[in-house]
């Protein structure tokens, strides 16, 4: 900005300039420049509203909006370079506007305060970011569905307590994450309504004596409504906290998937290999291929939780109405947005091209364990043996098998019948992994038929706009 600009921001009440260190401490321009485009949108709507209500003339409003458009262009071309002396993005715009359009620029702040202005800016910013994240969630879901589609018939071990429990269709496992992402998408859609309310016209805290039309500026900005109470309007940050809580949940889900991929990629599991485009090497151990992407997603999740905590603590002791503490809402919010968007993108790419499921290894794994033990008990129960009795019997069989280094499928029919006369030759079929999975055909279960239904329902859901 030109050095001719009077950088003294406040009124004549102040005789001397701020201590330079205090000026730097007070300034938010280094980070709230992120709001520039939204500040311009808010200011354009405000100028139009001032003209509509006769507070300024139409010609003046036009000069203002032209000046604002010019600033937008300068910013996009990298020519708009505010300094610490501008303090924040709102003053930076006002200073430049006055340089560009002269004295009329000094009229823009009529019937407005930086308090309702900044509230407007962050809502417009967050609304746009929410829309982007919701689109990203859809792409993430699509990537999960594409993998699921390929792996309906791939059987993987299912775990509880990280102990082999019952085998699953890999598609069923992946569809669990599609459901989580669905809730995330819906949750953000719900929060968007509360983000999308206009505080513009609440003034510093109490409204304004000018005959403003808040509904009009809100409409220009595509807000769904206006804050009913001016004090609440300038000091509410519930929407930012709600968003950060929703972002925390998105990251919980991404981090759980990340953790599974990290486990699966280990030699101990060997369920996936990572492709070269999505894994990294070690500087010393030449044999290594590291799962840095899911590890970073898991690691970055902590900072999102931290931002939620920061915002909650920032708010809890604030008396009405605006307090400068609220300037501290921006960095946590911006970093939350950046982190969740980055994590979503990385996990989506990982699903699209980073994972190769080792189907041979998976098939071998599920035929060499006792994850079909429940099915032996179910087999007897279906033949009228009380389930608890069957369960105890199978426990005994597993113990004997372990002692003799056998699997259930290795027992001869005579051995089975010695254990219980209800066993017949169809026991072998009943405990084969594919059959074990297919049998769990209850709604929401892993049976292949259910999984195919769930897959096609999930695909349809993806086409729903709201
Ligand atoms: N930079 C300030 C913020 O981010 C703008 C609002 C300043 N308002 C005030 N009364 N000092 O919160």
Outline the structure in words.
The chain is elongated. The N terminus is likely disordered. The chain contains 19 helices and six strands. It has three domains: 91 residues, Fumarase C, Chain B, domain 1 (Orthogonal Bundle), CATH 1.10.275.10; 251 residues, Fumarase C, Chain A, domain 2 (Up-down Bundle), CATH 1.20.200; 90 residues, Fumarase/aspartase (C-terminal domain) (Ribonucleotide Reductase Protein R1, domain 1, Orthogonal Bundle), CATH 1.10.40. With 466 residues, the protein is mainly alpha-helical. It binds arginine.
Number of helices: 19
> Quick one: how many beta strands?
6
User: Gyration radius, to the nearest Å?
Assistant: 31 Å
Query: What's the domain count?
Result: 3
Keywords: Amino-acid biosynthesis, Arginine biosynthesis, Cytoplasm, Lyase
GO biological process, one term: L-arginine biosynthetic process via ornithine
GO cellular component, one term: cytosol
Pathway: Amino-acid biosynthesis; L-arginine biosynthesis; L-arginine from L-ornithine and carbamoyl phosphate: step 3/3
Topology:
Layout: H1 20-26, H2 29-32, H3 36-52, H4 58-76, H5 89-101, H6 114-150, E1 155-160, E2 163-169, H7 170-195, E3 197-198, H8 214-220, E4 225-226, H9 230-235, H10 238-264, E5 272-274, H11 292-316, H12 330-354, E6 355-357, H13 359-366, H14 373-382, H15 387-403, H16 413-419, H17 427-430, H18 433-439, H19 448-462
Helix pairs in contact: 3-4, 3-6, 3-8, 4-5, 6-7, 6-12, 6-19, 7-10, 7-19, 10-11, 10-12, 11-12, 14-15
The protein binds arginine.
């Amino acid at each position: 900005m030109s050095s001719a600009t009077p950088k003294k921001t406040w009124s004549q009440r102040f005789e001397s300039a701020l201590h330079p260190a205090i000026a730097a401490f007070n300034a938010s321009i280094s980070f709230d420049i992120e709001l520039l485009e939204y500040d311009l949108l808010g200011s354009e709507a405000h100028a139009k509203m001032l003209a509509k209500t006769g507070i300024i003339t139409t010609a003046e409003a036009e000069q203002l909006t032209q000046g604002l458009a010019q600033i937008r262009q300068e910013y996009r071309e990298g020519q708009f370079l505010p300094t610490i002396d501008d303090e924040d993005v709102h003053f930076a715009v006002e200073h430049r506007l006055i340089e560009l359009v002269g004295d009329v620029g000094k009229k823009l702040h009529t019937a407005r305060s930086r308090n309702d202005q900044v509230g407007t800016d962050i809502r417009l910013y967050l609304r746009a970011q929410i829309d982007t994240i919701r689109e990203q969630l859809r792409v993430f879901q699509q990537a999960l569905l594409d993998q699921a589609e390929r792996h309906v018939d791939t059987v993987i071990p299912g775990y509880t307590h990280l102990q082999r429990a019952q085998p699953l269709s890999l598609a069923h496992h992946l569809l669990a994450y599609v459901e989580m992402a669905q809730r995330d998408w819906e949750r953000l859609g719900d929060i968007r309504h509360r983000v999308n309310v206009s505080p513009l016209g609440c003034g510093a805290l109490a409204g304004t004596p000018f005959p403003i039309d808040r509904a009009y500026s809100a409409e220009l900005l595509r807000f769904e409504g206006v804050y009913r109470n001016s004090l609440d309007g300038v000091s509410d940050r519930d929407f930012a906290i709600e968003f950060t809580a929703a972002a925390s949940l998105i990251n919980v889900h991404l981090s759980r998937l990340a953790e599974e991929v990290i486990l699966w990629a280990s030699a101990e599991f060997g369920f996936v290999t990572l492709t070269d485009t999505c894994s990294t090497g070690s500087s010393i151990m030449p044999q290594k291929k590291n799962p840095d992407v899911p590890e970073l997603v898991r690691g970055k999740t902590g900072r999102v939780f931290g931002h939620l905590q920061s915002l909650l603590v920032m708010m809890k002791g604030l008396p009405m109405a605006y307090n400068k503490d609220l300037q501290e809402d921006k960095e946590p919010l911006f970093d939350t947005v950046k982190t969740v968007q980055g994590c979503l993108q990385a996990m989506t790419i990982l699903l699209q091209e980073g994972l190769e499921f080792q189907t041979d290894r998976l098939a071998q794994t599920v035929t060499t364990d006792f994850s079909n033990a429940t099915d032996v008990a179910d087999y007897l129960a279906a033949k009228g043996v009380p389930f608890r009795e069957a369960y105890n019997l199978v426990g005994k069989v597993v113990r004997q098998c372990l002692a003799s280094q056998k699997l259930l499928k290795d027992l001869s029919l005579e051995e089975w019948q010695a254990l219980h006369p209800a066993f017949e030759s169809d026991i072998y079929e009943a405990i084969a992994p594919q059959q074990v999975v297919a049998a769990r055909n209850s709604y929401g279960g892993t049976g292949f038929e259910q999984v195919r239904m769930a897959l096609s329902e999930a695909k349809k859901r993806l086409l729903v706009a709201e």
